[in-house]
Amino acid sequence: LRLLPRQRYLQAQRAEVGALERKRNVLCCLITRILKVEKQLHIDNLVFRVTDACQKGELGPGLRFLSFCCHSVDVLSCVLRLLHQGYVRRQEGRPHVLEY
Questions:
Q1: Which residues form a coiled coil (predicted)?
Q2: How far, in whole angstroms, is CA 97 from its chain's centroid?
Q3: pTM (2 decimals)?
Q4: Rounded CA gap, 41 and 37, in Å?
Q5: What is the pLDDT along the chain (100 residues), one digit of tens a residue?
Q6: Contact 34, 49 (CB under 8 A)
Q7: Domain 21-99 of CATH type 1.10.357.10
C-alpha cells in the first residue's frame, strides 16, 4: 500500500470557488441595493455604478467592504442571474432599463 501526498491543488480550487462565490454575492447585493434606491436604471448606468462601488469599496452610505476588481462581464452575469431569479425585471417596451 502506497500513500499519496495530500493534493494541495484541490484545496486551492475550493478556496478559489469560495472567493468567486463571495464576489458574486457582493455584486448581487450591490445591484439590488442600487436598484432599490433608484427604482429603475439603464443597464449601462447600473454597470458603471456597480464597478465604481467595487473600486471604492462601498456598499452604500456607511457600509464599506474591501475593494476588489470587477469587470462589466461580472456585473452583467449577476444581472442575468437576478433577472432569472425574479429580483430584477426589464421594463416593458424598454428592455435596456432595469427595475427592482
A1: none
A2: 18
A3: 0.74
A4: 10
A5: 556 556 565 566 777 777 788 888 888 988 998 999 998 999 999 999 998 888 887 665 555 566 677 888 989 999 999 999 999 999 889 988 999 8
A6: yes
A7: no
